Amino acid sequence: MAAIVNRVTALVPKVALPVARYGQSKLSRFWYFARVELRPPMPSEFGEVQKGVQQIVKSASTGAWRQLTVKQFALNGLVGLEVMFWFYIGECIGRGSIIGYRPGRNKIQLQLKTTLSEEQHSTTQTPSLQLVILPKTQDDIVFPNVIDLNVGGYHYTTSLSTLRKYEDSMLAVMFSGRYELVRDKSGHIFIDRDGRHFGHILNYIRCDQMPPESMALDVLREAEFFCISSLISKLESSSPCVISLRRRESFRRLIPDYEHLKMDIINKSAEKHSSFQESRVVITQLDHTKLKGTIPCYNCSREFVTVNHACAFDGLTADIQIQQQLKPIQSDIHIDMDKLVAFVVDELVHDGFKASSERVTCRFSVRCQSCTLSGLYTAGGILAPRECHNIAHVIKFMTSEFQNHVESFVTSLTANAPQIHYQAFDFSNVSDNRSKLTNLNYDKNKVSCLNLEMIADMFQVFAAVHSAVESKSSRDFGIEVPHRLSNTRSIGDALRVFGGYGKPYVLVVSIQDRVQSEELFDKISQIEGVGKMTTEQIQEHMKKNLDNIRKYYFGTMSDEELRVHRNPIGEIVTKMVASKNL
């Protein structure tokens, strides 16, 4: 065994120098083929491979391989195997046995001819590379000057010279004559791509004609597939939507795990999804550990306050908390939460979501009971060093389902006439007569009381529309909606829940018969200080909330949508209050 080891030890240095010379030229070829044709390793990645090979040669020539551990020896061996495999792939590409292309690469080198200088025998000399086009052989396929193509069912006719115009394109390689192409039953050469945009590819090759902006992204995908690098470059420098796409792609690459973050936001929105309301996803960055545990009072020094604070933003807790410091892949670029959330919202809108965002601050503060009781701290015992100013970003998702239901309800009103009776009342002059409101005797299942200045109240009209659609009731749609609308709350609740008498304009909607409805309206008007409102007054108090509902619940509409829909919300409420008998 010792004799075998000694013989190998003596043989390795003799083999190492020829291996190094051979590997130097081969590494150059490997770098070109791997980078240009099959996969895109960066020069730094190639440097790691080269470093590994040099380490193997150094270990072999100096006998240092004896000191390598089993793990190190195995890793170096794997590096060598990887290089050998890529040598073989590169030579296959050079012979034309493999077609593997990447968009935006350099021209294809069909054969590499090594030209050695007089100092070639020096171990530090790198051979130069020269492009040589292989001559045609007898086995090459001869194409006619006019080519009929079937691209995904779309038929095109073009010249052979057009298809071969760009030598580094896939079309030029396909029609070089070295590859057998698939044909359809009519004998046309078949290309399995979406043919709707292939005409723009041909027009660019023929006369440098750029596609219209509306089709730029689709043409970009085809240009990348067919490796029309000049078209790709022009689109990336002139098309706004392509420029935007490249910027988004660049930003995505800067944020680690960006796709996971985006999907987490979408999944959270789906969990909170409601068909007639927006869903909100709260994203926060900080974790206020200083607001947890037992902390002293800096004012009186008498008491320790136990705190287990969880930030709340407008009543919502955080759904997603990212790491405290965003660490982009490039260390010289700073990305804050505002930029990240703005980009995510832009991506969501681009993907078809109706989304918006806003900043919300947690206003939590700790109170010391001793200070509050003794009056030593007039600000109510607030511990200033223990205030929370954590900022969260709330992303709102809005759906279009409810808008479609509202339009259906508007359509039904033109064909149906449910018996709806209404009257609006002004409670602004009522004082301490709440008991009289609660003593009113009426069927709460058939009467609805809505505060005209409250978005939540007005939106109940539209919630009733949605419920009627979802229930698929056998009752007429125009009658089902007011039935669902009628069982909301009493007049007292309408005033009490939304700020007492600060917003005292109440619309009473009844689906009882005319006699019962008018009796109820008379009872309400007889309460001291209550006055009936005119239709003009009703519309005046509604107008502000109608616009807010459209904004908050249906998102921002384009000018075209506004012309088409004409504010269906306003149409519904107008029809409900404009006539007692619809």
UniProtKB/TrEMBL annotation:
Domain (BTB) ranges: 145-243
Presence of keyword ATP-binding: no
The keyword Membrane is annotated on this UniProt entry: yes
Tell me the keywords, alphabetical order. ATP synthesis, CF(0), Hydrogen ion transport, Ion transport, Membrane, Mitochondrion, Nucleus, Transport
Compartments annotated for it: namely: Mitochondrion membrane
Single GO MF descriptor = proton transmembrane transporter activity
Cellular component per GO, a single term: mitochondrial membrane
Which GO biological process entries does UniProt record here?
Answer: protein homooligomerization; proton motive force-driven ATP synthesis
The UniProt family comment states: Belongs to the ATPase g subunit family.
Task: Tell me what this protein is called.
Answer: BTB domain-containing protein
Q: Which organism is it from?
A: Adineta ricciae
